[in-house]
Design a protein that fits this description.
The chain is mainly β. It is 0% helix and 28% strand. It folds into 2 domains: 33 residues, no CATH class; 60 residues, Single Sheet (N-terminal domain of TfIIb). Belongs to the archaeal rpoM/eukaryotic RPA12/RPB9/RPC11 RNA polymerase family.
Length: 107
């Protein structure tokens, strides 16, 4: 398996070269190690955790037990990520469905 030097995502073999499944970067296929490379199906978007500024939350689970600090709307999309140690609760990242404001909540 080969990983992208630019973003760290898994690369797959296409037309004799290695192509990153996330950013599209390419590199030459190392023929000596070609037997070691195995292509698999791509990761589904359901498994992605989107916490960076430009992340697309739309279509993710919806929380109705929150209130946006910017517009006071009562619905937000959210994702969950383990940001601390394994014995600590995960962090929920929210995006308001009305105004797009983003915030996090530590449980």
């Amino acid at each position: 398996m080969q990983f992208c030097d630019d973003c760290g995502s898994m690369m797959v073999t296409r037309d004799g070269e290695m192509v990153c499944t996330s950013c599209g970067a390419t590199s030459e296929r190392d023929e000596e190690r070609a037997a070691e490379f195995v292509s698999t199906e791509s990761q589904s978007d359901d498994d992605l955790i989107e916490t960076e500024e430009g992340a697309d939350f739309e279509g993710k689970p919806t929380a109705t037990d929150v209130v946006c600090d910017e517009c006071e709307h009562g619905e937000a999309w959210y994702t969950i990520k383990q940001t601390g140690a394994a014995d600590e609760p995960p962090t929920r990242f929210f995006k308001c469905k009305e105004c797009g404001y983003r915030w996090r909540e530590y449980n």
